[in-house]
Predict the 3D structure of the following.
Amino acid sequence: MLRRMLVLAVLLAGPAALAAQPANYVRYQMGGRVSYGRLDGDQISQLRGAPWLDKTPTGVKVPRSKVTLLAPATPSKVIAVGLNYQTHLGERSAAAYPGLFAKLPTSIIAHNDTVVLTPDATNVHYEGEMVLVIGKRAHNVPVANAKDYVFGVTTGNDVSERDWQKSDLQWFRAKAADTFGPLGPVIVTGVNYDDLLLQTRLNGEVVQSQRTKDLIFSVAEIVSYISRYVTLEPGDVIYSGTPGTTRQMKSGDVVEVELERVGLLRNPVVQRR
């Protein structure tokens, strides 16, 4: 009876309520073919294309256990916001506008993929973050409309080599090195990304924990600001900032980043000899 009442309430609320229902989307590989799909429980319904472009089901359904989950987006641009939680800033004052930097698409790896450190990477830290996935082309959009351009959110780790950040002219290798952008495994729509619990665990120990409502610059402000200077395309991703303090990762460590209602991103760490 309760289930019937809930279904009736949604139907009476109309299309807007239906559109607001959470949905989980993945990108996966099976039998050499890469596809996008909608994840419902343990089953994936294949889609015609990326869900921000074409969510039409093909009719093909596969068990999640039979596929390899890939990074859920293949962005043309990977943009990140630095110093966007006061707990990460410490005693420093917040900036007047979001501090931006770029990672490279080649830094993106999937859930369970390995973060590979080069031999000279000696001070590499995790940075658990909520990541925004852009759903439609955004150019110079106002803050009031900026959320309309966000397709959904996923979980990310902005891996960072602190010594390189200090010594290099730019953060090119410190932030954009290969494997320094773990992402996924699921993109979730229809959730309130302005208030989700973000936690990072290093070898099972909780080392970061804060809600996204504490972002200094909100999701809408981030998207609007970036779009003033750079046109965002569907599938582009934005790392929104990391809370608290961070610690060094070493070969043999396992980093898990979990975003409430979105899911868990897990990556082992190895150092190349």
